[in-house]
Amino acid sequence: MDEYEIAHGEDASQLTDEIIANARPISEFPELPNFFKTRGQRGPQKAPVKERVGLRLNSDVVEHFRRTGPGWQSRINDVLENYVKANET
Predict the structure, then answer these.
(1) Which residue range forms the structural domain that includes residue 33?
(2) Over the stretch 24-76, which tens digit does the pLDDT of each residue have?
(3) Cα separation of 87 and 67, whole Å?
(4) Distance CA 21, CA 25 (A)
(5) Long-range contacts of 70-78 (CB under 8 A, 24+ apart)
(6) How far apart are CA 89 and CA 82, in angstroms?
(7) 3-state helix, strand, coil in the chain (%, to 5)
(8) Sign, Cα dihedral of 83, 61, 70, 45
(9) pLDDT category of residue 5 using cuts at 50, 70 and 90
(10) What contacts 24+ positions apart, CB below 8 Å, involve 22-30?
């Protein structure tokens, strides 16, 4: 196995002069850029879309959830959602 295969995988082909000569610009494939998501773009949500709101919470509550690590805002949402379900009439 040579350095190229180690770096790129043994089934990766190397670029040859012939491949480069036959290459076509991406502008010839207008549908292709839309196929790939750009960095920071999300796909459609599977669950109901959340609404962004400004909410004032006690600092000790916020710190408690922040200490739990990534996803702390979702955990606050889960607690509120469980409260709503438990108190529906």
Answers:
(1) 3-41+49-86
(2) 888 888 877 677 666 666 667 777 778 888 999 999 999 999 999 999 999 99
(3) 28
(4) 11
(5) 77/50
(6) 14
(7) 45, 0, 55
(8) positive
(9) low
(10) none
Global pTM exceeds 0.70: no
What's the confidence (pLDDT) of residue 10? 65
Q: Which residues have C-beta within 8 Å of that of residue 50, sequence separation ≥ 6?
A: 77
Enter the tokens of residue 38. Answer: 């750009």
- Look at residue 50 in the predicted model and tell me its pLDDT: 82
- Residues in CB range of 12: below 8 A, 6 or more apart: 4, 5
The better pLDDT of the pair 74, 5 is held by 74
What is the total count of domains within the chain? 1
Q: Please report the DSSP string for 49-61 in residue order.
A: PP--------HHH
- DSSP track, 2-43: -HHHHHH-TTPPPP-HHHHHT---GGG-TTHHHHSPPTT---
